Amino acid sequence: MDWNSVTFYLNQAFSWTLHNSIQACFLVFLILLCKQLGKERLPVRWHYAVWFLLIWKLVVPWSSDSSLSLFNWLPTPSLGSIQEAHLLTASGSFQPTEEAYPHNSIPHRDTYLSTEAGFSWFSVLSLIWIVGVIILAVTTIYTTYRFLSRVKDDSTVQDQTILRSLSQCKQQMGVTTPIPLRMSHRMTSPALMGIWRPQIWLPASILENLDEQELRHILLHELAHWKRRDIGVNSIISMLLIVNWFNPLLWYAASRMRQDQEMACDALVLTYLKETEVPLYGHTMIKMLELYAEPKKISITAGFSSSKKHVKRRIIMISRFKKRAYTWTASGIIVVLALGVFTLTDAQKVLGKELTFVTPVAGDIRSTPDQKGINIINNLNTPAKAAAAGKVLKAEYNTTLGNHVIIVHEDGYQTVYSHLEKLEVTAGATVTQGQLIGLLGSTGRSTGPHLNFQILKNGTPIDPMQFLVTETTKE
After folding, report:
1. 308 with 24: CB under 8 angstroms?
2. Contacts of 235 (CB under 8 A, 6+ apart)
3. Can you give the pLDDT at residue 151?
4. Which stretches of the chain score pLDDT less than 50?
5. Spatial separation of the C-alpha atoms in residues 398 and 443, rounded to whole Å
6. Distance (Å, rounded) from C-alpha 110 to C-alpha 171?
7. Selection from 321, 347, 430 nearest residue 386 by Cα
8. What is the pLDDT of residue 103?
9. What is the largest CA-CA distance in the chain?
10. Coil, strand or helix at 83
11. Domain 154-228+247-322: assigned CATH number
């Protein structure tokens, strides 16, 4: 695979990521709005679960069209419009063929690839994006490896009183997975680690500062993280942030999700406590804040402590907690379903407005052997028309394509008209279907009057004969 092909696929990947990231921003705003409006009305579990809509939006590469989609009314750029600036990527978009040059050898591809195609501003942004992804991924892996290397030799807890307390907590929460308990002088806060082989780490000083009941609260909290599979979720979020590192709103959303995750975890623990023990759980949280403020978090851990501002929110939730706070309500389900319908779907194409292409010039049509274009042979100065409405990206001359016009259309399509005798449009002009764009000729690398015509989808040539309709059929 050569550099031009790498650039093409890199641009494609960045186009999709950018498009999806922009749409995800609207979902974040809606989630924050719904959370604010339902602050007191919707259950704690809902405030965390609603963030999974954002994860779905960022992970799933496709979505169905819907007339109810939010993006029917919002001017969000489509994938095709984002790609407009780099549709001339070196993907084989302009492939001269034997049919186009019947009496001459095919020119080397480097002679007709546009220089700005390989080094366009969008290609530069794509390169910056992938470099950022690589740097952040390497940094995350190195940080995780270094952290695990520091704690791998920490001792396993042997105190039978503590182990008995852990066993009772597991039995109370219905956890059957073996979860070792380890003590560390390097940990700054209690934490659960491991996606498949979970372990609970406790700071070595914790036994000197907490009584048996407070330790039980911490163990219940870490077991709740395991029961809810929070470490796996945090790992997915970390990978999504690496890919979307350029979007600050997603970093903020991830931070809010981690906060709501802790509150949902607290709510689950409280469902296993007696009513008289609920205030004591809040006291344990305050004490942990005093002992281990602002613990460092990584994707493979789920802890107990958090910032002072967040602890205040958690204490308020605990003081108002009712058993139903961890159950789904009808209103919560309706809001989640509505958000999903509005934001996890794409704008619906208007019925009867699907993009169609008409034959750009009358004449004898001959397909190229690779079916990536057609040659239409006719007399010199035969009118050549736009196959579909769009915007002229280029209208100029080069030694290979001669006078040629490139038009960008909706949904990532573009059409290319080569070897024109005369150009009738300029770059930047908006054209309608059937509008005159030039006169058939034999300029550039050509041996006779003809039009070389191509249709591209997201930069990739496709067989025009599968898309062309006659004027009569169209009507």
Report:
1. no
2. 195, 299, 300
3. 76
4. 80, 83-119, 350-352, 472-475
5. 9
6. 69
7. 430
8. 34
9. 96
10. helix
11. 3.30.2010.10
CATH homologous superfamily of domain 355-474?
Answer: Glucose Permease (Domain IIA) (2.70.70.10)
The H or E element containing residue 181 is strand 181-184
Q: Hey, CA dihedral for 356, 360, 365, 371, is it positive or negative?
A: negative
Token look-up 């851990």 returns 301
pTM (2 d.p.): 0.70
How far is the C-alpha of 52 from the C-alpha of 59, rounded, in Å?
10
* CA dihedral over 458, 464, 466, 470, signed as positive or negative: positive
Q: Of 445, 473, 358, which Cα lies nearest the Cα of 407?
A: 358
Residues 6+ apart with CB under 8 A from 26: 70, 71, 74, 76, 343
Q: Which residue type does 169 have? A: C
Residue (of 152, 118, 85) closest to 412 by Cα position: 85
Token pair belonging to 412: 């990532």
Q: Which sign, positive or negative, has the C-alpha torsion 338, 341, 346, 348?
A: negative
Q: Please name the residues in contact with 405: beta carbons below 8 A apart, sequence gap of 6 or more.
A: 392, 394, 395, 416, 417, 420, 423, 425, 437, 438
* Pairing of β 181-184 and β 199-203: parallel
CA atoms within 13 A on the CB side of 172: 20
**Quick one: pLDDT at residue 329?**
63
Rounded to an integer, what is the distance from CA 36 to the centroid of its chain?
A: 25
Residue 438 host element (H or E) = strand 436-440
Residue 441: phi and psi, rounded to 5, are: -150, -155
Q: 287 with 214: CB under 8 angstroms?
A: yes
Residue 192 β-bridge partners:
200, 302
Q: Write down the domain spans for the chain.
A: 154-228+247-322, 355-474
DSSP 92-125: T-S---TTTSTTSPPPPGGGTS-HHHHT-HHHHH
Q: Name the residue with tokens 């995800």.
A: 24
The label of the residue with tokens 């922009």 reads 22
Residues in the chain: 475
Measured in Å, how far apart are the chain's first and last C-alpha atoms?
44
